[in-house]
Design a protein that fits this description.
The chain is mostly helical and 102 residues long. The chain has one domain. 78% of the residues lie in helices and 0% in strands. It contains five helices and no strands. The N and C termini lie far apart (36 Å).
């Protein structure tokens, strides 16, 4: 809000960051005992359905006007999705750094 965004845009940004961050944390927890790259190669079809469903749901909520009004979101959907993806990658990088230091 200090950057001049209205309350509904901030709400959309926070929701996007939470969804993307949770998906990133799922991937982070998959690699507790293995390398980060090894977590991507393990077979888990349910994971990909959850990632696809969460991502599709997020995209729908941000882009369909009726759903956007239901959640009281506003703002530029591609811009908000980009910020959410950057937040998710930040969480992955932070998690990888913490694992290496332990």
């Amino acid at each position: 809000m200090s950057q001049g965004f209205d309350e509904n845009t901030v709400r959309a940004l926070v929701f996007t960051a939470m969804v993307a961050g949770n998906i990133a944390l799922v991937f982070s927890n998959r690699s507790l005992n293995a390398s980060w790259q090894g977590a991507w190669s393990r077979q888990n079809p349910a994971l990909w359905w959850i990632v696809l469903g969460g991502s599709a749901g997020l995209a729908l909520v941000l882009s369909v006007p009726m759903l956007r009004e239901l959640f009281h979101f506003s703002g530029d959907a591609p811009h908000i999705l980009g910020i959410g993806i950057m937040a998710a990658f930040s969480i992955l990088l932070f998690s990888a750094a913490v694992k290496r230091s332990v």
